[in-house]
Fold these 2 entries.
Entry 1:
Amino acid sequence: MKTPIIVIGAGGAGIIAAWKAALSGAPVRLLEKNTRPGVKILISGGGKCNITHTGTIEEVLNAFSVGERRFLKPSVHRFSNADILELLRNEGISTYARPNGRVFPEHGTARDVMRALHSILERAGVEFRLQSRVERIIQKDRSIRGVVVNSEEIPTNHLIIATGGKSYPKTGTTGDGYAWAKELGHSIVPLRAALAPMAVMPALPREWQGIALRGCRLFAVAAGRRIASWDDDVLFTHEGVSGPAALEVSRSVAASLESDEVELFIDFFPDKEFATLDDDLNAYVQSQRQKTIGTLLDAWMPNRLVEWFLVRIGVSALTRGIVLSRDDRRAIAHALKEWSLGMVSDVPLERGEVTAGGVALREVDPRSMRSRIVRGLYLCGEVLDIAGPIGGYNLQAAFSTGFVAGESAAADWHAEVEAAQDD
Ligand SMILES: Cc1cc2nc3c(=O)[nH]c(=O)nc-3n(C[C@H](O)[C@H](O)[C@H](O)COP(=O)(O)OP(=O)(O)OC[C@H]3O[C@@H](n4cnc5c(N)ncnc54)[C@H](O)[C@@H]3O)c2cc1C
């Protein structure tokens, strides 16, 4: 019997996998528990969808850690950033790259991207089933035999798991793929938040909520060592810190928190060494000696922060430049380079834009996305132990691995059908 290829999860990885497999003529069924496909794509990039990152394939790969890069290399070569953009262009979605390399739809939003992906699925003949939560996977002697959906058993010999991560569970990603993969014999690298906001203690003053620090450096220190650092904007929230710099350091912070305490610091002037900054501060104070240091610092940081900043160092905001001592000035310069925000109390997994950890990469063939453990099983997208930085890299990883998973599942399906005909 010709059982269909089953794809679980209609996110970036599952959609591209189902489309690619169906183009070969194989019957493909895409099962999604939500009432609509691509919920995460719809909320990506603040609803604008940062589809991918511009640049060469090597540049895209270099954004990932060494192990992830090695794993992704064959699939990103097979289906690159240029390929996904061409696919969308053929569906009428033109795109543009921002100066930071992030690629977005030129006119539309994430909805238009989803509409385009939906129409390629339809044209390829993918059988799309929404509100279809897969409950269980059936295997026999380390070979896939079927899935159970809404208590109905669907036989299949070729199953693509594209169920995403475990963060943002309201979008459907509740980590089902990890549990199945584990049951099937795969190792799961421990899950952690990545690209997540961080809570700090003691709690930041309420008055800071909504303040954005532009172009600063956020760095994290654990056991006396700087474990992560990122230059970009930081946003103060009611719980702690968010914004691109916070999201980027969160993965390393979450990992270190398991064994150490982690303290966060801001460097307001990452491009200046302490000595230069101190000289600049001195020159600035000397040029306006009658002004108070509180007023002077208004030009160097958001004014809502100035008083807090100076209280922490023990310098009165009312001190006039003319009487500011050398020691106080150096203390200010020092704090501008290394201002403690407190200890990290939590990096919530459910708030991460991606989940770090997942199905161990060594157990999946990077050229085919075939499981090295179970026959007829393919894994792609965020369910794998891959978590890239902000910038369109995570969707690209989902598209590329999805493409290869769909291609290999289809090749295996056709080979099986041919073998059956020969018998
Ligand atoms: C707020 C936010 C913004 C983001 N912005 C960007 C961005 O701009 N650019 C970027 O590159 N990345 C972004 N990301 C990350 C990116 O969206 C994900 O890494 C990517 O979508 C992962 O794709 P995926 O196909 O592996 O998984 P998902 O897109 O998460 O898809 C998995 C699907 O599987 C379904 N599913 C799960 N379990 C079952 C089950 N048992 N039965 C049936 N279906 C099931 C889920 O409902 C879901 O639809 C963002 C993430 C978030 C949360």
Entry 2:
Amino acid sequence: MIKTLGIISSIIPFGDTSLILKALSWDKGQISILAKGWRKKQEPVLRFCEYEFTLYEPKEEGLHLLKEASVLQDFTQYPSTEIWAAAEAGVELLSKIIIPSNESHDYYTVQREYLAYLQKTHINGILIFWRLFLRVFKLLGIESQLNTCRICGNKRALYAIDNAVGHICQECFEDLSESGQYTLLSQNATEILRLLPEIGMHLDRIKVSTVAVSELNRYFLQYYQVHQKQTLKLKSLSVLCQFYD
Ligand SMILES: [Zn+2]
């Protein structure tokens, strides 16, 4: 039997009375838990709640069995639907990543801080979501050098992105004879990327355009795909995008 902290990302009914929970755990990355008979309980388990779980470990690869769950922190409530959608997108992002057990503390902390931060956020939740992406890149060892030009190596605001999602400054871009393989970014998007590492200080004054939303979503998904060599689809991201126009 083990005890571990976990934040539930999804709950699926199983049989007549049981549930299968997917959770990001403190000790073991993403785990699946069979909660036998828990649909009849008076206190239901909730998505986005942080629990201390008492679990029987699976005999082989498979489901943990839930013995007890006690609530530690409630991350189910957000100031608005927009912010709630940002919470959904972040939890979905983390659920797609294969987390080695020895790194699960780091991913758990990042997700927990993300949800706690969103509970205090009233506007521009997508900026916090993109910052989460940066933190995930760092944990994956594919940190994005947002302000370093791939051609000249100088720290300069990025202006365009190449096919491998490398960053190009404006000067280098203008020197290129062949610019067909580069994607220009709008000023709004480059400004957001420049400020993203400390975006919390700028949340209230940035207006996020529809164009920047689609450019930056494409940027982050493509960056992930190029560096991780696997596709990434986030259903909840299209819900989040609807709040910016
Ligand atoms: Zn340059």
